[in-house]
Amino acid sequence: QGTPVAQGTPVTEEVPTNLVPPDGSVLLFELVARGVQIYACDVDPDDATAYIWIFQAPEADLLNRKGEVVGHHFAGPAWQGSDGSAVVGTVLERADAPKPAAIPWLLLEATEHEGSGVFSTVTHIQRLDTVGGAAPVEICDEEHAGEEASVPYAATYAFFYPALSATPEAATPAA
Question: Which residues in 130-147 are b (16+ Cβ under 10 Å) and which e?
């Protein structure tokens, strides 16, 4: 099947098979996110005697290939375009990032849509090529409880939609 990549987009690592969208999914577009992953120092849910950095939300600009800001990525996780359309997703699969201190690569499924613009037909989202964003290395203990930390990150988000029925007319992509 091959790795779904927009023409001319350099991908440095191969996409793990568990992150490939379902058969019939077509790459709609890719955007680069540049921003931060926000963490809060709080009690470890698995050990009430320990404190850890807990992920809160992303805050990032979404950029097209020309480097123009065309949207925003924020808690949900959600992606909203300049046209007002938005998609919210939930994580289906994850894979460790090849780069150290980088947040995992993900496959997400759309759970909600808003508006009728570019994000209105998205069914799946991949987060790939992550750089940075991992939990802070600063001390997180009772004294620091409640503190927030913003860790810079970048990622490529690939947005997919379902292919049309396999009729000859639908098989030919529009110019």
Answer: bebbbbeeeebeeeeeee
